[in-house]
Amino acid sequence: MAATNAATDIGFATLFGKVVANVFTAFAEITDMTPPGISRDSVDFTHFGSPDFFREFKPGIGDGGEVSITYNLVPGLLDDAAIGAHFDSRAVETWRFVFPNGAKLEFRGFATGHERATPMDDKMTGSATFKVTGKPVMTPAA
Predict the structure, then answer these.
(1) Can you give the pTM of this predicted structure?
(2) Is residue 1 within 8 Å of residue 80, measured between CB atoms?
(3) Which is the most buried residue in 42, 77, 132, 139, by most CB within 10 A?
(4) Residue 9: predicted pLDDT
């Protein structure tokens, strides 16, 4: 039996950042990230003659989902400043994940949430949520 390829990859060294004019700029201190999870609507095509008294469905429109990230907070600087500026711009921009094996997952989207946490006895963190517009595109490692 062949060994799994999954054992060679963990999330460490995955990058996330913005693409502007084909230049990728990774965020500095992300500690957790969730790439987009795609889904598809189901459309009910049931009619009065549907067989066996069961509903019938066809695939509907896809949804690119959401992305979430958490980062070490340096208030007003680094990742916090980049997300704040993006949030204020209300722009739909290109974002990219680069996985440890070199594969890239790129999507267009915009920030829908930006939060900061400043606990008394732990590190400060920031977080952001992005809504994906259109279909995310995965490019396998070369």
Answers:
(1) 0.89
(2) no
(3) 132
(4) 73
